[in-house]
Amino acid sequence: MNSPTASGPSAPGEIASMVWEVFVRPRRGLSHQHVGSVHAADAELALRRARDLYTRRGEGVSIWVVPGGAISASCPDEKDPYFAPAADKAYRHPTFYQLPEGVKNL
User: Fold this and answer.
1) Which residue segments constitute the domains of the chain, with CATH numbers given?
2) Closest by alpha carbon to 37, among 18, 56, 55?
3) Distances from the Cα of 24 to the Cα of 5, 12, 48, 77, 90, angstroms
4) How far apart are the C-alpha atoms of 10 and 52, rounded to whole Å?
5) Among 25, 44, 64, 80, which has the minimal tally of Cβ within 10 Å of its Cβ?
6) pLDDT digits over 17-70, tens only?
7) E strand or H helix at 46, and its extent?
8) What is the pLDDT of residue 24?
9) First to last CA, the chain
């Protein structure tokens, strides 16, 4: 992902803002999902803006805001080599382990 972009003040006295990525958990028991981004000077303002923009109809029970620069991501173009299974590491495969006698459920 991209690093946070600081945009300079557009009016006298205005504080520079940065990009915050927004994650919303729609219901208890579900995972947070990325829903978009907001520009804000700090985390508190980012939370308020995210709430106003992404949960207007009560669709969330929890919001996370993360500075864009704090997120590291793999490149989609490197999908095959990055996620390919390591064939040279047999211990990662369940066939490597022998079950001891007497163990019924593992």
Assistant:
1) 18-96 (3.10.20.520)
2) 18
3) 22, 33, 13, 27, 38
4) 22
5) 80
6) 899 999 999 888 899 999 999 999 999 999 999 999 999 887 889 999 999 999
7) helix 43-54
8) 95
9) 39
Q: What SS3 class is residue 79?
A: helix
Residues 35, 22: contact at Cβ < 8 Å?
yes
Q: What stretch of H or E contains 45?
A: helix 43-54
d(CA 88, CA 64): 39
What's the token pair of residue 61?
A: 């029970």
Q: Pick the residue with more confidence: 80 or 39?
A: 39
SS3 at position 88 = coil
Give residue 84's identity as a one-letter amino acid code.
A
Task: Give the Cβ contact number of residue 69 at 10 Å.
Answer: 15
User: Residues 10-37, buried b or exposed e (16+ Cβ, 10 A)?
Assistant: eeeeeeebbbbbbbbbeeeeeeeeebeb
Q: How far apart are CA 52 and CA 60, in angstroms?
A: 11
